[in-house]
Fold this protein.
Amino acid sequence: MSEAIRTFDSAVHGEQQEEIPCPLCGGRNTDEVLIARDLLFAKPGTYPLVRCQACTMEYVSPRPTGASLGAHYPDDYFGYSLHEDAPAWLRPFLQSMAKGISRKRIAYLEQTTGRIAEDTDILDVGCGVNRLLECIRDERGVTGTGIDFKPEIVQYVREKLQMPIMEGSLDSAGLPAESYDVVFMMEYIEHELHPRAVLEEARRVLRPGGHLALEIPYAGAWIGRFFGRFWWNLDIPRHLIFFTPKTLEEMLDQCGFELVKINPFTLPLYVGMSIVQALGLRHWRKYEGLYPILSSFLALPLLPFQWLMPEFLFVVARAK
């Protein structure tokens, strides 16, 4: 499939880009879903989200090449933000929210696997600052291993948290086959240039019967369609591929997994961030202090109804 990729320089974006076939079926005929801008950092240019006519997979094409993509993850990207760097008044809220998210993820996994045993070998791909593995260690007594490509984050996890972590990606780690019981990819696979290769590598390192846990944006949810290019979870061009349950099940099956369970869910007040963007407040870093306050205020009246607004899928698949 790599031979079918067309690479070119985009003067508008100031980066090298590539036009790709469908990541699921290899098809070339697409329909345009929407045209997106980088609302998080307000970088120039637009990116088309397209839908494959053959299999309905949705993905960004043209998109930044691997060499260009790093510029879209600056040091202040919120996925790498540390609680201790936040304003003092905001830290308790962020810590409580992070702990709640980690506990929810553990609960979703354990609905399928049962309680995580002390001898479980766990890998978290794209672990960031390791909040999930830290929670599992504290509450289940299991020390998992993380993988992340950001050197500063790897250093933080090793030195500050004193937890095992590898620098790089899953395909560069060179892990032994059938060496893990659980592989987490939390809000990760949608960032991948080559999701199929990553899922195949996850299958290789999982023991037969082991479990893959994915958390992804829910592309088929009505809330995403309603907000369109202002949907917070769109986050193009960092998010490159958008699965529905149907397309995800097909790719998992092709990569050696059996889909076991899907939990649609949202986070409290999360819809407020989409409202903020739709109202015109862009460039998250520039208005970082305003985002949590304004989004919470705008979403508060909708809080009793947010269970009707799922924006994520937590997916558990079993290695065949």
Q: What stands out?
A: The domain at 72-319 is CATH 3.40.50.150 (Rossmann fold). The longest strand covers residues 206-217. The two ends are 25 Å apart (CA to CA). The chain has nine helices and 14 strands.
